[in-house]
Design goal:
Strand content: 15-25%
Shape: globular
Order of helices and strands: EEEHHHHEEHHEEEEEEH
Number of domains: 1
Strand order of the largest sheet: 2-1-11-10-9-8
Distance between the termini: 12 Å
CATH class: Alpha Beta
CATH architecture: 3-Layer(aba) Sandwich
CATH topology: Beta-lactamase
Number of strands: 11
Amino acid sequence: MQSLAMIENWPVPTAAAAVVRADGSVVGTYGPGSHRFPLASVTKPLTAYAVLVAYEEGAVELDEPAGPEGATVRHLLAHTSGLAFDEHRAVSAPGTRRVYSNAGFEVLGDHLAKVTGIAFADYLREAVLEPLGMASTSLAADGSPAKDGVSTVDDLTRFAAELQAPRLLDARTVREATGVVHPGLSGVLPGYGRQKANDWGLGFEIRDAKSPHWTGASSSPRAFGHFGQSGTFLWVDPDAGVACAALTDRPFGPWAVEAWPPFTDAVLAEVRA
């Protein structure tokens, strides 16, 4: 794909990217596909998927209590538990604000380990990574389920294909996870400021009408995914029938705010041509 050549102008030492259609076919790649990058918050969609597998297996219910008083697994997944960003303390009542929370995903990992009797990193590996053939993706035993995953673009193409044509989960579960949960709540989108409607699904950020945003101007409102402070992102655009993953080794900053949206627009334009 010609659009992937835009990465050559990114001010990063190393980058890798791939574009995956809804049928699982990889239609374009750039850079070293087997290079392992820290995912930062792109870890969260993987964590959410493991929790959803546990839900379908009957090990956990989305509306069972978890986290601060009054919160549930669903609240934790949707960043509406009220837990602070990086502290295990409540700053609002559950369901009233969209408070993006690493702490919430750490509570999720602890909760899943408690109800299953399996360490979260092991559950993630057994429930998601191994079945999808993501052999180069890992979370250390003491790693945060919010931000400490490591992966490759080659592995993320497998996860991107799964999100578009689920095999590990019922398609209805994935539709719920990638649709808006607790709509209309305001909150801060890290790196992009306060959003009047900071919409999220269950572990996935929803594009909707957010502005500014890390996806493209031509991304559909139904686009979903996540970006990470390590300079990484994964988005899926259901209307375009395509997903894109990009991993770099330069922390997120103004360079990414400038580079990522036109890159996404170029990928979508090429796919739609």
